[in-house]
Amino acid sequence: MEKLALITGASSGIGEEIAKELGQRGYSLFLTGRNEMRLEELGRSLGVQTEWQCFDLSCTEDINRLADVMDARKPDVLINNAGFGLFGDLMDADRGATQSLVTVNCLALTTLMQAAMRAMRDKQEAYILNVASVAGLLPAGPHMASYYASKAYVTSLTLGARQEARERRLPVSISALCPGPVNTRFNERAGVRFALPGKDPASIARVAVEGLFKGRPLIVPGSLIGASACLSHLLPRTLYTKLISGQQRKKG
Ligand SMILES: NC(=O)c1ccc[n+]([C@@H]2O[C@H](COP(=O)([O-])OP(=O)(O)OC[C@H]3O[C@@H](n4cnc5c(N)ncnc54)[C@H](OP(=O)(O)O)[C@@H]3O)[C@@H](O)[C@H]2O)c1
């Protein structure tokens, strides 16, 4: 039987490229996002069995609807990728947009991972990739504080759930992808300009899928990004946060 991969945020950027990568590896695909035209266009271009359906993951009913799909379809791979950032100080940000960020980046990702772990428990092997960010390895991100905090949540949740899965001998390997800047629609949506040159999303997708199938806990593409994450553990958290603040100001 063909293996099935379910991907959130497949209508653009990293999710779209991971869909192509898994399609090339022979997976059947279940693509989700909000933009039906883009999902359909991608679905028809992949040359493997592909379904697509729209879910707005800032809305709890849609999160639960997609969790029900997970129960019914029991995918072999979940790519928990949908997410977005907001640039600016927390006190100035739109309340609804801030609530959506926390809902999509944290609540939806948690509910879908939980549903996937249950749906995958009787498989021979299964994989979950949570798309975090290098932001999730740093102490804090002033001027994008809710985004950085949401990604720190993702890396912490991933490592915690991964250990639980190991202790229960579940056949599920759980990883977090922690990229630096990637050239997608992220910037435009977050209202930022990157301080460093962005990477090509196809190369990030390749590294992500290889790392996922090798069972890596944290997949950090690029040595510069890896080094900055390591440095953050050597300096006091408050000092590093001050340094990040200076970098972040340049993004507006
Ligand atoms: N680009 C970067 O520099 C970078 C770096 C580190 C981590 N990341 C993470 O990578 C992931 C993918 O982002 P990207 O860079 O590929 O950006 P992107 O091109 O903007 O793609 C974001 C995807 O998330 C989906 N999405 C956003 N809000 C949603 C919602 N309310 N409901 C359902 N789907 C929603 C979008 O779907 P629709 O377009 O259909 O709304 C889109 O498919 C995110 O989690 C992001 O935080 C990005």
Descriptive report:
The chain has 252 residues and is α/β, with parallel strands linked by helices. The protein has a single domain, classed as NAD(P)-binding Rossmann-like Domain (Rossmann fold, 3-Layer(aba) Sandwich), CATH 3.40.50.720. The protein contains 9 helices and 7 strands. The protein has a 7-stranded parallel β-sheet, sandwiched between helices. It binds NADP nicotinamide-adenine-dinucleotide phosphate. NADP nicotinamide-adenine-dinucleotide phosphate (NAP) binds at residues 9, 11-15, 33-35, 55-58, 81-85, 104, 131, 133, 179, 181-182, 184-186, 189. NADP nicotinamide-adenine-dinucleotide phosphate binds next to helix 1 and helix 6.
Distance between the termini: 49 Å
Strand numbers in spatial order across the main sheet: 3-2-1-4-5-6-7
Q: CATH H level: which superfamily?
A: NAD(P)-binding Rossmann-like Domain
Quaternary status: single chain
**What molecules are bound to this protein?**
NADP nicotinamide-adenine-dinucleotide phosphate
Beta-strand content estimate: 5-15%
Nearest-angstrom radius of gyration?
Answer: 17 Å
- At the third CATH level, what is the topology name? Rossmann fold
Number of helices: 9
Q: At CATH's second level, what is the architecture?
A: 3-Layer(aba) Sandwich
